[in-house]
Design goal:
Elements lengths: L9 H8 L11 E2 L5 E2 L8 E2 L2 H15 L4 H4 L5 H12 L7 E4 L2 H15 L5 E5 L4 H12 L6 E5 L13 E7 L11 H10 L3 E5 L18 E4 L13 E5 L1 H4 L38 H13 L5 H22 L4 E2 L11 E5 L3 H10 L2 E2 L1 E3 L3 E5 L7 H16 L16
Parallel strand pairs: 2-13, 5-6, 5-7, 7-8, 8-9
Antiparallel strand pairs: 1-3, 4-10, 9-10, 11-12, 12-15, 14-15
Helix pairs in contact: 1-12, 2-9, 4-9, 5-6, 10-12, 11-12
Bound molecules: pyridoxal-5'-phosphate.
Length: 416
């Protein structure tokens, strides 16, 4: 199905909700009554089947079968088994992806490996406005490189070319910027990075599960990302790392733990890496949380990422149209062009914090990113067009009521 122009009434939204092809997916998730959840780009909701998956893991695999479950229940293989399934969502053929650790840790491994693959180069290019952990990890990996390294910073939307030369070992970029929601052109950038002889590392935290990514087709070198946002793997669910098969033999994981060993149960004294992607594992993985990722992937069974992307764009189109109609003076930060827009809409507003708090009180959960961004994530898996219509209306109500004048909306909490 192609979505034509955005519906122009609530009744038209209801009609579209009744016929759009992904409407049944909502039933695979638990969404509290009366809540319009626009924060799935931070923590996705719980897949309905996750409860039974966790219960089986706890009661049968752990309580009853104990240590036998490492083999019998396939615990040991979960990183690569789930990795292959997740790899399919990012266009990576089997054998190149593992689910493990956190995005920060996997990014560290990728940068360190890239530095090792370009021994005569001494520069890492990163985004000035990247999610902070990416910048901190670049610093940490450079400090441990064993030779002096330099960091060059670029804005999310470039110009990258000016920074690419024969000194650049790797470029670390976010597919979608966490604040603005801007989407980068992977094919174009990857080609430019490769033309300069460097390697590219994509952070897919804000696109995995909602936007297509062509890992193999675009000859991407490394990709990392989390599973708790649009993938709905649960709080703190393990992340992933994908490494191109052509690099695997030479790519060195700095965290050379026993799970990355070629023969972990030989208990050798010396480290000998696995010949495949398992070399990017380190140690024992959190099996309960891995099962959360499994339940999340199950919830996407039979769903094409292209279909998710089509609906996501239609949802953000509708939100942008409603905001433009109701609040024409608001500063929309997210690009209007579909080819440059992720699955969120960011609005800059100096009273962003109290507005987001007031919206939450009225049942619309979005989030605030300092200093002045209201961020609304549009997950096509469980949001309806009517949700989007209503959310824009509640945003307009909050602004018209000047909710920031109420002291309670200005109280800052550590986590929002
Ligand atoms: C773009 C981006 N990269 C990295 C991270 C950090 O991931 P983790 O805490 O799993 O290391 C986040 C978390 O929100 C993120 O948005």
């Amino acid at each position: 199905m192609t979505y034509s122009s955005a519906p122009e009434s609530r009744a038209a939204c209801l009609a579209l909700d009744g016929e759009e092809p992904l409407r049944a997916l909502r039933d695979r998730f638990i969404l509290p009554e009366g809540v319009i959840y626009l924060d799935g780009n931070s923590l996705g909701p719980m897949p309905k089947a996750a409860g039974a998956v966790f219960a089986r893991t706890i009661e049968e695999e752990w309580a009853r079968d104990l240590i036998k479950s490492w083999n019998k229940a396939g615990w040991f293989d979960l990183p690569s088994r789930l990795g292959d399934r997740l790899g399919a969502l990012i266009g990576a053929a089997p054998g190149q992806t593992v689910v493990c650790d956190t995005t920060s840790i996997n990014l560290y491994k990728a940068i360190h490996a890239a530095i090792g693959l370009r021994p005569d180069r001494d520069v890492i290019v990163a985004e000035a406005g990247a999610f902070p952990t990416d910048l901190y990890i670049v610093e940490g990996a450079m400090a441990a490189a064993g030779r002096p390294m330099q960091r060059r910073l670029v804005d999310h939307d470039g110009p990258l070319e000016a920074l690419l030369d024969e000194r650049v070992a790797a470029v670390v970029l976010s597919h979608v910027d966490y604040r603005s929601g801007r989407l980068l052109d992977v094919a174009d950038i990857t080609r430019k990075v490769h033309a300069a002889g460097a390697l590219v590392i994509w952070d897919l935290c804000h696109s995995i599960g909602v936007i297509e990514f062509a890992f193999d087709a675009e000859a991407v070198d490394f990709a990392v990302g989390c599973t708790y946002k649009y993938l709905n793997g649960g709080p703190g669910s393990p992340a992933f790392i994908a490494v191109a098969r052509r690099l695997l033999r030479q790519a060195r994981n700095p965290l050379s733990g026993w799970w990355g060993h070629a023969a972990p149960f030989a208990f050798d004294r010396d480290f000998r890496p696995d010949s495949g992607i398992r070399r990017f594992l380190c140690g024992t993985q959190p099996i309960l949380s891995m099962r959360g990722v499994e339940a999340a992937l199950d919830a996407l069974d039979g769903v094409e990422v292209a279909a998710l992307r089509r609906k996501s764009l239609a949802l953000t189109d509708l939100f942008l149209a409603r905001v433009a109609a109701l609040l024409p003076d608001l500063e929309i930060v997210t690009p209007g062009e579909a080819s440059r827009r992720g699955s969120q809409v960011a609005i800059a507003f100096d009273k962003a914090y109290p507005v987001v708090q007031a919206m939450i009180e009225r049942g619309v959960i979005g989030d605030f990113r300092a200093p002045d961004i209201m961020r609304f994530g549009f997950a096509p898996t469980y949001l309806s067009f009517t949700d989007v219509w209503d959310a824009a209306g509640i945003l307009a109500d909050c602004l018209r009521a000047e909710v920031w004048r109420e002291p309670r909306y200005n109280l800052r909490h550590a986590v929002t």
